[in-house]
Amino acid sequence: MSSSVLQVQQVSFRYGGKEIFRDLSLAIQEREFVSIVGPSGSGKTTLFRLLLGLEKPETGGLFLGEKQVIGAGGGIAYVPQKDLLIPWRSILDNVILPLEISGLTKREAYANARPHFASFGLAGTESAYPHMLSGGMKQRVSFLRAYLTGSDVLLLDEPFSALDAISRVEMQDWLLEQWVSLKKTIILITHDLDEALLLSDRILVTSSPPMKQLAEIPVPLSRPRTMDMKLDDKSLLSLKSELLQKFRHEGAKCDAEET
Ligand SMILES: Nc1ncnc2c1ncn2[C@@H]1O[C@H](COP(=O)(O)OP(=O)(O)OP(=O)(O)O)[C@@H](O)[C@H]1O
Asked: For this UniProt entry, which residues form the secretion signal (predicted)?
């Protein structure tokens, strides 16, 4: 067998009468960076909810290593679109939440969290409150909180979509660096095709429900990657046009379903 860290095996799922997945299978390799792109309403967030154990498949199974994914919080961490920081807790108190929940005392949790502030670009923000930070910084806090769960797999649900264009590019660069240094497996939902191309080893394209498989586009760019590549590389431009075509095609099918 390969070194899949995450496996979705023949999963079927529906919300009431709406069938979302039918016998869907996919595998994510250890330390892979995979982006999921696809039209609105195609089931991207639902896939995350299943991976987090927040929804139960009708049939099939989801596995983290050998272990079946059951219930929330089992080795998979989630960074949502909105940072969901608690406004009345300091940044340090926000990031230690998962450590407190796992049973550490506040003192232990602080000792655990503090050394990571610098590498997450958050030095000096420990006693600040969320409203004092920029959008990009708040997302880094959210990312640090997810990292401190100790999970090997991070699910990022459009984490940069609310940021302005410049902060977004800065955060994409930052995430590239973090992915290299933290050695985690990352799955990113994004609507930004440039972001998907720049960051990923593979891009999975969702289609209109019920989804039986995800189209897969490998990104054959060497690493380390830079922003210049994004602008210059000819193969990147042709990949982008391939992605756009798939995206539009599936989007049209989704729109037709909704009407
Ligand atoms: N709790 C729910 N109950 C019933 N239907 C739901 C529920 N959550 C999502 N759906 C439906 O399931 C389908 C897939 O939703 P999902 O949020 O997974 O799509 P998505 O691809 O993440 O969309 P977006 O890109 O807009 O976030 C949609 O048709 C949505 O309306």
From this structure: none
The domain total for the chain is 1
Angle at 199 between CA 188 and CA 120, to 5 degrees: 80
CA distances from 67 to 78, 80, 144 (A): 18, 24, 25
Look at residue 4 and tell me if it is in a domain: yes
Q: pTM of this prediction?
A: 0.90
pLDDT digits (tens, 9 = 90+) for 26-84: 999 999 999 999 989 999 999 999 998 889 999 999 999 878 776 555 689 999 888 88
43 CA to centre of ligand 1 in angstroms: 6
The reply to whether ipTM tops 0.95 is: yes
Query: Residues lining ligand 1, judged by CB closer than 6 Å?
Result: 15, 18, 20, 38, 40-46
> From atom 29 of ligand 1, which residue's Cα is the shortest distance away?
41
For residue 258, give the CATH number of its domain. 3.40.50.300
Tokens of 240: 């982008």
